[in-house]
Amino acid sequence: MNPAADSVSPAAPTSPAPSSEVTWTDPARHAAFDAWLAGVAAQQGLDPATLRPASADASFRRYLRLDAREAGQPSRIVMDAPPSHEDCRPFVQVAGLLGGAGLAAPQVLAWDEAQGFMLLSDLGDRTYLAELQSLDLSGGAGLRRADGLYRDAIDTLVRLQRIDATAAVPAYDRALMQRELDLFPEWYVARHRGATLTDREREQLARCFDLILKTCLAQPAVLVHRDYHSRNLMLPLGGPGELAEGSGPGILDFQDAVAGPASYDLVSLLRDAYIEWDEAIQIDWAARYWERARKAGVPVADDFGSFWRDYEWMGLQRHLKVLGIFARLSHRDGKDGYLKDLPLVWRYAHHVAMRYSVLTPLARLLERLEDVRARDGYTF
C-alpha cells in the first residue's frame, strides 16, 4: 500500500542546510534530477548551488528548496517523487482546485511527470505548529495570537469546503474508511502492542467499527483535505518574509483529498496529533466553524449538539487510523519519530470511546492495550 494513501503529514520544514546535505541512493536518478534541474533553473532564474532540504515526509516524497539568482526574488520548492512509488497527478489536480478558489496552495511551475520532478512556488518555512510552539499559550498575547491563527484556518476551511469537487476527487466511502480502521488492529494492536484479541474482543471491535462507519458516512460530503492541521498550514506571507496578518494560511499536503464528511478536517485541526487544546477551546472554535459553515451553505447539522457528535465520531475514526499508521511508520518503515505522538492520539480515541456508552468495549480494549484503568468519564 502506498503510504501517501493513508494521508500522513510530512515533518515540519527544516532550517536551510548546505546543498551537500541533499543525498541520493540512486545514482541514475541523481543524474536525471541534475539534468532536469539545470534546465528548469536556467528558465526560472534559480541557483542550483543553493539546493537544500525543505522537509521530510512520511511517504516517498521529499521536498527541496533553492534560491533565485537575483536577490529579492522568491525561493522555490522542488518535489522529488519517484513515479514507481508516488502518483503526482492528484497533487496537481487539487492544487488547481485550491488555487482556483483563491486559496494559498503551491503553484505548479514545472513538472516532469515521467520522472517525478516538480517545481513549486514556496509558501515559506514557518508552520502553524512552529509558531504555536514559540508562544506562551497559558493566556494573554500568546493565546490571542493562537486564536487568530485558528480563526483564519477555520475561515479558510469553510472556503475550501465550498469548492465543488465531488466529481474531481475520490469518494471517502465505506471501503476506504474500513481499510483505514483495519490499520488499528493490524499495526497498533498486533504489531506495536504485541497483543492478541480474544474472539469476544474481535466481535466487539467489529461492532464498534460498524457504528463508527455508519455515523461518519451519514454526513453529507464536501471536499476533504484529510490532513488539515498545524504541520500542513503555513503562516501567510505578505511581501518577502512578511506575515500577512488576518489572511488565510498556506495549505500543504493536500494530494490525498477526497469527498467526505464535513467534520473531518475540523477535527483534524482541533484534535491535532501534535498539539493539544482544552475541550472548552475546541468547542468555542467548533461553534465558530459551525456558524460560518451554515451561513456559507456547507452541509453541517442544523443543531450544534448533533454536529459535535459528528465531530467526535469522525475524530475517533481518524485517531484509530492514526494509531495504526504511526505504528506502521515505526515498525515497517523505521520512522520512530511518530511514536512520541501516540499517547496524545490514544487519549483522543479513549476520550470519545469513554463518552459514548455503545463504545465502552473499545474504551476497555484501549485501556488493556496500554495497561491503564479509566479513572473518570461520562456517557451519553
UniProtKB/TrEMBL annotation:
User: InterPro entries given for it?
Assistant: Aminoglycoside_PTrfase, Kinase-like_dom_sf
User: Is-annotated flag, keyword ATP-binding?
Assistant: yes
Gene source species: Sphaerotilus microaerophilus
Key word Manganese present: no
PANTHER family in UniProt: N-ACETYLMURAMATE_N-ACETYLGLUCOSAMINE KINASE, TRNA THREONYLCARBAMOYLADENOSINE BIOSYNTHESIS PROTEIN TSAE
Q: Where is the Aminoglycoside phosphotransferase domain?
A: 50-293
* Domain of life of the source: Bacteria
Q: What is this protein called?
A: Aminoglycoside phosphotransferase
Write the record's keywords in alphabetical order, separated by commas: ATP-binding, Nucleotide-binding
What ranges does the record give for the region Disordered, renumbered to this chain?
1-23
**Bias (Low complexity) ranges:** 1-20
